């Protein structure tokens, strides 16, 4: 049976490097993104390596839950799925709402991959042994751990809200791994450790993304961000590629793969059952599996 993979935000940066790595390992890769032009370039780049199966592009605005549902319907209709890499991510200097009226950081970084994953579970189970890889971030260390509402208390600071959305998604990842035990579907988180990408180049130089206390020492914070995001995307993609394909992870699940492409300890907050329950309730309410 042909092994298939879907990589969201797969047209540039870490996403396209991940897609290239999966294609090199014999998977038929679908890259998902908003821009048809970038999608065509990504597919051309992947196919130039003469993979076993040609890559393709599917257009979808993953900030829209309706678009996520449509994408899931199309992929599910095509049969079993072997690998799903939820690489999508976004950080905003200013607070924004998605097309569904939901705060955009939470919508893009958690609700979108949550909904796509849930809708594709039957296809992944049909493709078992299969894997789900959710890209996480060290930014969870600055996250507020309150999930009774989509927005945390206090002001909007992009980096902190990004970390909170990634914490929600990591918590969901571990919770999902428990749910899917024994199904043949393994679930992993992959921490790329940072790279020079459109997202980091576009937002990590803006002091508005951090709280006022950190703005006081912004030159130091900015230098730390610059060091953390200076590496190539090809290196940052290794954790996702490892999580999606490495044979040493067979029959394992609920593991975080770190920037060195090996398992690392999981943040304690992500394994808190109370946080998991709050994230689950909030996700089900904001992103129901059937459109209302």
Sum this structure up briefly:
With 292 residues, the chain is α/β, with parallel strands linked by helices. The protein is built from eleven helices and eight strands. Strands 3-2-1-4-5-6-7-8 form an eight-stranded mixed sheet, with helices on both faces.
Low-confidence stretches: none
* Multimerization state: single chain
Please state the overall shape, judged from the principal axes of the Cα atoms: globular
Q: Helicity, in percent?
A: 40-55%
Distance between the termini: 36 Å
Listing every helix as H and every strand as E from the N terminus to the C terminus, the arrangement reads EHEHEHEHEHEHHHHHEEH
Q: From the 3D structure, determine the CATH topology.
A: Rossmann fold
Can you give keywords for this protein?
11 helices, eight-stranded mixed beta sheet, 8 strands, globular, Rossmann fold, 292 residues, 44% helix, alpha/beta
Overall description:
By secondary structure, the chain is of the alpha/beta class. It has one domain: 3-Layer(aba) Sandwich (Rossmann fold), CATH 3.40.50.720. It contains 11 helices and 8 strands. The protein has helices spanning 13-24, 36-47, 65-77, 104-126, 158-179, 198-203, 212-215, 218-228, 233-236, 238-245, 273-286, and strands at residues 4-8, 28-33, 56-59, 83-86, 130-135, 185-190, 255-257, 263-264. An 8-stranded mixed beta sheet has the order 3-2-1-4-5-6-7-8, with helices on both faces. It is globular and about 55 Å long. The protein starts with a strand and ends in a 6-residue tail after the last helix. The model has no long low-confidence stretch (mean pLDDT 92).
